Amino acid sequence: MRFSLSILFLLTLTFSSVDRLRAQEGIQNNLYPLRDSITLDTMIGYTDLAAAMREPEKVVKLVLRKEKYKEFPKEIWSFPNLQYLDLSKNQITEFPDSLGKLKSLQVLHLSKNKIEALPRELGDCQNLVLLDINQNELTMLPPQIGKLKKLKYLDLWSNSISIFPDELKDISDNLKVMDLRVILINYSVQDRLHKLLPNTLIYMDAPCHCNQ
Question: Model's pTM, two decimal places?
Answer without folding.
Answer: 0.85
